[in-house]
Write a structure and sequence with these properties.
Number of helices: 5
Distance between the termini: 24 Å
Helix content: 10-25%
Radius of gyration: 15 Å
CATH topology: YbaK protein
Strand content: 25-35%
CATH architecture: Alpha-Beta Complex
CATH superfamily: YbaK/aminoacyl-tRNA synthetase-associated domain
Order of helices and strands: HEHEEEHEHEEEHEE
Structural class: alpha/beta
């Protein structure tokens, strides 16, 4: 696994530095629609430890973020039930970009343009370390998963569908 050359700051890294959160930076070559599996492959990481940041919305078009293992999918039906809404579905890419302030494929849950509730697959919090997008395509940050609760107030759910 190769640590990166320095990447210019993103809103996510600025927030993490302000909050004195320890993180490591990793850079990989972004591939359209490659997702976390491409990042995992290039960096030699366990796909289960690479966390994807998904912007979704409920039936009232209220956005939310769900953090999921890279090798799993989200059961939107279970997520809606656990969150207490009728329906949840992924946002259109341009809508997700408007809510997060990040380009799709480079979405970080940290320092989003619009404040959104964050939900996290509960087993992510049990990992010794996670790798999550740093706010730019091809840019991942390694950190302790406890940051998701302390900084984002991420609430645990059990909504993973294993690929």
């Amino acid at each position: 696994m190769s640590k990166s050359a320095h990447v210019s700051e993103t809103p996510a890294t600025r927030l993490l530095k302000q909050q004195k959160v320890a993180f490591e930076e990793y850079v990989y070559e972004y591939v359209d629609h490659g997702g976390t599996s491409e990042a995992s492959r290039q960096l030699g990481l366990d796909p289960h430890s690479v966390v994807k940041t998904l912007v979704m919305e409920d039936e009232r078009k209220q956005p939310l973020i769900i953090l999921m293992h890279g090798d799993c999918e989200v059961s939107t039906r279970n997520l809606a039930r656990q969150v207490g809404v009728k329906r949840i579905e992924p946002c259109a890419p341009e809508t997700a970009q408007r809510h997060s302030g990040y380009q799709v494929g480079g979405t970080s849950p940290f320092a989003t343009r619009k404040r959104m509730p964050v939900w996290v697959e509960s087993t992510i919090l049990d990992l010794p370390g996670i790798y999550i997008n740093g706010g730019r395509r091809g840019y991942i940050l390694g950190m302790d998963p406890a940051v998701l609760r302390s900084l984002l107030d991420a609430r645990p759910v059990q909504v993973a569908l294993v690929d």
